[in-house]
């Protein structure tokens, strides 16, 4: 067995319902890490800048219709097309703060009635996050925050199903953070979680793969 210890960046994923504060908190985290002298980048899925990402964006904005299985596989393909760059960055020591990942893929698609195991299958072999942070908010509270952008899935009824799907999917390793606290309180908790993860990875914690 290879026991060499190579320092690397941490792969940290933020998950949660729409309007749970993932995007704001992700960018704050990256600023914080950079300010602490830790190399970090903000990533998000879907990554709408690629060709696959443009198909996803067109679907989400209701410019196109796709079969539920097809769009599921496109979301997964969008992660696969970024996998080798992800590996390069992590091994070069850059911590990646990722706004949504495979868990969104499974939670949203299974909320439409697709089989959960079928939904998980195309994610097998992607890198497993070192930390999954779930920004916990009730669907009702999230809806009150307003500014659902009018994209597909941004409806209270559907978000309720997504909340249930996340519950079915999460495990004891997830860090559940109450997203209804002040921005600053949420931010502090996230910083602690991420710093722990960064330290572990600097000490050479091996990269692992989904689903683990
Ligand atoms: N979404 C996101 C999925 O349905 N599957 C996925 O794999 C991912 C990554 O896309 N409502 C959904 C969740 C969101 C929507 O994401 C767009 P965002 O973070 O609002 O750009
Ligand atoms: Mg959204």
UniProtKB/TrEMBL annotation:
<dbReference type="InterPro" id="IPR027417">
    <property type="entry name" value="P-loop_NTPase"/>
</dbReference>
<dbReference type="GO" id="GO:0004550">
    <property type="term" value="F:nucleoside diphosphate kinase activity"/>
</dbReference>
<dbReference type="GO" id="GO:0005634">
    <property type="term" value="C:nucleus"/>
</dbReference>
<keyword id="KW-0808">Transferase</keyword>
<dbReference type="GO" id="GO:0004798">
    <property type="term" value="F:dTMP kinase activity"/>
</dbReference>
<comment type="similarity">
    <text>Belongs to the thymidylate kinase family.</text>
</comment>
<dbReference type="GO" id="GO:0005739">
    <property type="term" value="C:mitochondrion"/>
</dbReference>
<dbReference type="GO" id="GO:0005524">
    <property type="term" value="F:ATP binding"/>
</dbReference>
<dbReference type="Pfam" id="PF02223">
    <property type="entry name" value="Thymidylate_kin"/>
</dbReference>
<keyword id="KW-0545">Nucleotide biosynthesis</keyword>
<protein>
    <recommendedName>
        <fullName>Thymidylate kinase</fullName>
        <ecNumber>2.7.4.9</ecNumber>
    </recommendedName>
</protein>
<keyword id="KW-0547">Nucleotide-binding</keyword>
<dbReference type="InterPro" id="IPR018094">
    <property type="entry name" value="Thymidylate_kinase"/>
</dbReference>
<dbReference type="InterPro" id="IPR039430">
    <property type="entry name" value="Thymidylate_kin-like_dom"/>
</dbReference>
<dbReference type="GO" id="GO:0006235">
    <property type="term" value="P:dTTP biosynthetic process"/>
</dbReference>
<keyword id="KW-0067">ATP-binding</keyword>
<dbReference type="InterPro" id="IPR018095">
    <property type="entry name" value="Thymidylate_kin_CS"/>
</dbReference>
<dbReference type="GO" id="GO:0005829">
    <property type="term" value="C:cytosol"/>
</dbReference>
<dbReference type="GO" id="GO:0006227">
    <property type="term" value="P:dUDP biosynthetic process"/>
</dbReference>
<dbReference type="GO" id="GO:0006233">
    <property type="term" value="P:dTDP biosynthetic process"/>
</dbReference>
<keyword id="KW-0418">Kinase</keyword>
<comment type="pathway">
    <text>Pyrimidine metabolism; dTTP biosynthesis.</text>
</comment>
<feature type="domain" description="Thymidylate kinase-like">
    <location>
        <begin position="14"/>
        <end position="189"/>
    </location>
</feature>
């Amino acid at each position: 067995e290879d026991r060499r210890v190579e320092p690397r960046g941490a792969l940290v994923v933020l998950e949660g319902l729409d309007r749970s504060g993932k995007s704001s908190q992700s960018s704050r985290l990256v600023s914080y890490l950079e300010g602490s002298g830790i190399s970090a980048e903000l990533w998000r899925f879907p990554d709408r800048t690629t060709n696959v990402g443009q198909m996803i964006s067109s679907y989400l904005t209701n410019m196109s219709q796709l079969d539920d299985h097809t769009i599921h596989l496109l979301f997964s393909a969008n992660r696969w097309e970024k996998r080798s760059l992800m590996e390069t960055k992590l091994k070069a020591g850059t911590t990646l703060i990722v706004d949504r990942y495979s868990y969104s893929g499974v939670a949203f698609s299974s909320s439409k009635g697709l089989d959960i195991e079928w939904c998980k299958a195309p994610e097998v072999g992607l890198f497993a996050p070192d930390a999954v942070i779930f920004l916990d908010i009730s669907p009702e509270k999230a809806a009150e925050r307003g500014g659902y952008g009018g994209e597909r899935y941004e409806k209270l009824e559907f978000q309720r199903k997504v909340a249930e799907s996340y519950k079915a999917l999460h495990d004891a390793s997830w860090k559940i953070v109450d997203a209804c606290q002040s921005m600053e309180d949420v931010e502090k908790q996230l910083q602690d979680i991420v710093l722990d993860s960064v330290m572990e990875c600097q000490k050479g914690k091996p990269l692992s793969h989904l689903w683990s």
